[in-house]
Structure to design on (356 residues):
């Protein structure tokens, strides 16, 4: 029997990228924003225009995505899923050309069991076909034809209509019951 | 009406990558191989083992994919298709992490009308869903659910069962009749 495929997002699903953006922003601007300031907003909505450009520049630099922390329990659960499903890592990354190699190196470091064959770095995820998609962005989930799992994030709290998962432990339970 | 999607391969379809590999091989080894030595073979089949490793190393280096020549008529025909279809560039590139930014920069230079949104850098292309796929590798075409167009290459001359196109001009004619 063919294994079913799961497409898993990187930023704010496997990798705590939002946390790194916030930390970098606070460092550059000597501010002390916390995640609570950003409820239901993207980071770029709350930063003022001048500082928005500064943080955009940082995100475009080589290395920005290389040392992002791994989300809690992501390694254990993705490894378990990888044994039963065909796991593909699908990251909307082509907007940031310098992130591409960083993302491959990051995966190689933290998820060495994922082959380069199973990595997709793209822009518009509507070209990806799989059975399940785990993502924090509605724009990625809404065009997907398989089952959608919304990974809860500060910026998607107001979005309805998707099964929501607050942690990798909750995702593990979902697949245990599939 | 939704535009139909075309997934277009880069190496040996948009970009004359085989030609660069051959040139690099000859340069390193002081040989004078021509394309005719490689009929129905991949480049890696004919190179001897020691030299195979040398050329593999070259392909992994930053910059290798950056200055590859554009295939004849590719720019004009892809531009014309882009006006009628949703064109996605789909390259099996994640095996070569240093190629990823080079490929984005190459596209930006030669195909600036293609947005980063429409670029997919992946390993296994069976995850890509579109209406048409233009590719030189059977492994990519055989799992594709839409219409397949095989771009003729030295290494695929023995492959049957696909509509074969020897040039971008022939691809233009195909789409003129769709």
């Amino acid at each position: 029997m063919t294994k079913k495929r799961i497409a898993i997002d990187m930023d704010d699903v496997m990798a705590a990228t939002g946390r790194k953006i916030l930390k970098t922003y606070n460092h550059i601007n000597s501010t002390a924003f916390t995640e609570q300031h950003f409820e239901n907003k993207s980071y770029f909505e709350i930063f003022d225009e001048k500082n928005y450009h500064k943080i955009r520049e940082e995100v475009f630099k080589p290395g920005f995505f290389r040392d992002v922390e791994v989300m809690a329990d992501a390694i254990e659960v993705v490894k378990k899923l990888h044994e039963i499903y065909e796991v593909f890592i699908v990251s909307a990354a082509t907007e940031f050309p310098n992130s591409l190699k960083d993302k491959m190196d990051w995966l190689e470091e933290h998820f060495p069991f994922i082959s380069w064959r199973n990595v997709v770095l793209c822009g518009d995820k509507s070209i990806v076909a799989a059975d399940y998609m785990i993502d924090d962005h509605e724009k990625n989930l809404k065009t997907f034809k398989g089952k959608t799992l919304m990974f809860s994030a500060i910026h998607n709290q107001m979005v309805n209509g998707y099964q929501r998962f607050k942690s990798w432990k909750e995702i593990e339970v979902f697949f245990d019951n599939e």
